[in-house]
Each structure stands twice: as structure tokens, then as C-alpha cells.
Amino acid sequence: MAWIILFFAGLLEIVWAYAMKLSDGFSRPVPTVVTILAMFLSFGLLAAAMKSLPLGTAYTVWTGIGAVGAFVVGVAVLGEAASPMRILAALLIVGGLVLMKLSSPT
């Protein structure tokens, strides 16, 4: 169950990162509120997952989901560059996440 909670915490990290971009430096109220709410929920779920997952594993997977997800949203939604080097970097992060999961005792 902790892994499912952690997965949703990571998805919410993507939401708050995207909403933060849309908030234009917190000058737009709706994206600002979405950012704050998604942050709160993401951190809460991360804390719940950390009850049974090791700190290093939980935090690494959480940030990795957020980083790769934000990269995908940036490319797919915001039209950011998808150069071979950036794609390789994202794939290396995913590889690291898989290794963290496989090496976790829980």
C-alpha cells in the first residue's frame, strides 16, 4: 500500500509543479491555490508512505516521479525541447527509480 500512496504523492508533485508554472510567480490566484493544495496533499502522502518505506527510497522515488513527470508535461503540454540528451537523462532517472524499488526491503 505504501508504494501506491507514494505513486500518488509523486503524481501530485507533477500537478503542483505544473500549476506553479501556470501561476506566473504566484500572481494568478487559481493556479496558486492548486499549487498549494497539491503540495500539501503530496507532502501528506509522502509522509504516510514514509511510515513503512525507508527515507532514501521514498524520497528518491517521489522526486523521480515528479522530475520525469514534469519533464513529460513540459514536452507534451508546454512545447519544451525533447532533445536526445534530455530524453536520455529522463530514462536514466527512471532506471534509478526501478533500481530503488528493486533494492527496497519493503
UniProtKB/TrEMBL annotation:
Superkingdom: Bacteria
Keywords on record: Cell membrane, Membrane, Transmembrane, Transmembrane helix, Transport
GO biological process, one term: xenobiotic detoxification by transmembrane export across the plasma membrane
Entry's family note: Belongs to the drug/metabolite transporter (DMT) superfamily. Small multidrug resistance (SMR) (TC 2.A.7.1) family. Gdx/SugE subfamily.
Lineage: Bacteria, Pseudomonadati, Pseudomonadota, Alphaproteobacteria, Sphingomonadales
PANTHER family: GUANIDINIUM EXPORTER, SMR FAMILY PROTON-DEPENDENT DRUG EFFLUX TRANSPORTER SUGE
Gene Ontology CC entries for this record: plasma membrane
Annotated organism of origin: Croceibacterium soli
GO molecular function: transmembrane transporter activity
Coiled-coil stretches noted in the UniProt entry, renumbered to this chain: none
Localization per record: Cell membrane
Main location class: membrane
Membrane topology listed for this record: Multi-pass membrane protein
InterPro entries, per database record: EmrE-like, Small_drug/metabolite_transptr, Small_multidrug_res
This protein's name: Guanidinium exporter
Transmembrane parts of this sequence: 33-50, 57-79, 85-102
